[in-house]
Write a structure and sequence with these properties.
Elements (H helix, E strand, L loop, with lengths): L2 H53 L23 E3 L6 E8 L3 H20 L2 E8 L4 H16 L2 H10 L7 H10 L6 H8 L4 H13 L7 E4 L2 E3 L6 H9 L1
Parallel strand pairs: 2-3
Antiparallel strand pairs: 1-3, 2-4, 4-5
Helix pairs in contact: 2-8, 3-4, 3-5
Length: 240
């Protein structure tokens, strides 16, 4: 083979190698583009799902006893469900955006509802607001609902829809979702934050009682370790 042919063959091999390298680079860029697109779709989908979960209308909630006597809202004082003459007093400190409080409500609400409805216990509710603005808005709206006579149903609805941000539209719509009516008075109470001062006073009252986290439960003045509690255990405490 002549030197010229050898040189031409070498150039061909070099050109082929360069073309193959360029093709591999293009494949890598295509793959990276596809991966970036998939990641963008996943992120966008996650953002969209979260937006839907937090900004949707509240879901309907079936509550066995949604109504109660209209409450009087007083600074530093809890909202009370049940007869004042009930032999057992249960005090519960919670935040409507607290995940553990939602879990507590899911487990223990049937026990507390039964005790309240049977006349065995009165339940004192301290809705704290320390997690975010939605906590404060929800606590204010709960006071509005209790004042309007549908506090128990509204309380259950707030926890049943715990992923919502709790803007004014959602809080007003929740009344209908629990079988009540959002009267003009209730709507005004919600949107004007009529009980914002009371919400602040509940936080202060909790601090005075040594409550630093939620949920916190007292039965007849004795703090109960909720990490060791069971529904049957709470029922036994109330009925003993």
């Amino acid at each position: 083979m002549t030197a010229a042919k050898k040189s031409a063959g070498g150039r061909d091999r070099a050109r082929l190698a360069a073309e193959q390298a360029a093709a591999r680079r293009r494949e890598r860029w295509v793959l990276l583009g596809v991966l970036a697109g998939l990641i963008a779709l996943v992120v966008a989908g996650g953002i969209g799902l979260q937006a839907w979960r937090t900004n949707r209308a509240p879901a309907a909630v079936a509550v066995s006893s949604p109504s109660a006597a209209a409450a009087t809202i007083s600074a530093g004082r809890p909202i009370v469900f049940g007869e004042g003459s009930a032999p057992v007093v249960v005090a519960l400190f919670s935040d409507f955006h607290c995940p553990h409080c939602a879990e507590f409500d899911e487990q223990y609400a049937p026990v507390l509802d039964q005790a309240r409805q049977s006349g065995r216990a009165r339940v004192e509710l301290y809705p704290m607001a320390f997690i975010d603005e939605g906590s404060a808005a929800a606590a204010n709206a709960f006071a509005c609902a209790a004042e309007a006579g549908f506090g128990p149903g509204y309380y259950a609805g707030l926890f049943a829809n715990r992923t919502l941000t709790w803007n004014d539209d959602q809080l007003v719509a929740l009344a209908g979702a629990v079988g009540a009516t959002a009267t003009p008075q209730f709507t005004q109470c919600v949107t004007s934050r009529a009980h914002a001062g009371w919400v602040d006073s509940i936080n202060a009252s909790a601090a005075q009682q040594g409550v630093t986290g939620t949920p916190t439960l007292f039965v007849d003045g004795a703090r109960t370790d909720v990490t060791k509690l069971t529904p049957n255990g709470l029922a036994a405490m109330i009925n003993s």
